[in-house]
Amino acid sequence: MFLENTVNHKEQFGWIEVICGSMFSGKTEELIRRLKRAQFAKQKVEIFKPAIDTRYHDEMVVSHDSNEIRSTPVPAAANIAILAQGCDVVGIDEAQFFDDEIVKICNDLANQGIRVIVAGLDMDFKGNPFGPMPALMATAEYVTKVHAVCTRTGNLAHYSFRKAEGEKLVLLGETEEYEPLSRGAFFNAMKKNQETKDKKSTD
After folding, report:
1. CB-CB contact of 152 with 192 (8 Å)
2. How far is residue 86's CA from residue 81's CA, in Å, rounded to a whole number?
3. Checking DSSP bridges between strand 15-21 and strand 142-146, what pairing results, if any?
């Protein structure tokens, strides 16, 4: 359960919230919900996303349900530290695409009294921890893990299975390239892929 930090208002420190999970699990939807609520409360909010992510819009953070909020695309995590000064709340989407410096920047912002809300994939298409996300989750006060629904079993899904071929780690895509799978479905899908590769190599 997510509880906001409201105990001691005299403490001049912020905190970090991480929203993580697979693709199609509602990460961005939850990020937008929290940020819009802060905007409604007249707090100064800035939202950032990696410049690499142009799937829906160049300057908007957009969820799969077409919910959106204006953001600033940045090429590297270092830009966030400069642009976030004077904010009450900072939102960061697709954090897995940033360099490892994002961890220090998020902690520096929190230490300045800023509430930092980060959303990102916790695992890559191979089921391995993705980029700076493990370190962000470790240093965050709050971690919310959201789940999609497995397209093959109907169970909770927390793996992002890549249907498209290729070993490139970063491949922007939607339902044509990825599908959310449960642990069992993901294991079987990866096993089948490996068997297909082995068969091709021996033919």
Report:
1. no
2. 11
3. parallel
Dihedral angle of Cα 8, 9, 12, 18, to the nearest 10 degrees: 70
Q: How sure is the predictor about 57, in pLDDT bands with cuts at 50, 70 and 90? A: very low
What the block records as the tokens of 172 is 């922007």
| Alpha-carbon gap, residue 12 to 169, rounded angstroms | 39
| Pair type for strands 45-50 and 159-162 | unpaired
How far is residue 66's CA from residue 35's CA, in Å, rounded to a whole number?
16
Count other Cβ atoms within 10 Å, centred on residue 57: 14
Give catalytic residue positions: 94
Please check the confidence at residue 67 and state whether its pLDDT lies above 70: no
The rounded distance, in Å, linking the Cα atoms of 203 and 84 is 56
Residue 171, pLDDT above cutoff 70: no
Residue 85 reports pLDDT greater than 50: yes
Sign of CA dihedral 202, 178, 121, 86: positive
Tokens describing residue 42: 């007249």
Report the DSSP beta bridge partners of residue 83: none
8: left (phi over 0), alpha (psi -120 to 50) or beta: beta
Closest by Cα among 126, 113, 188 to 161: 126
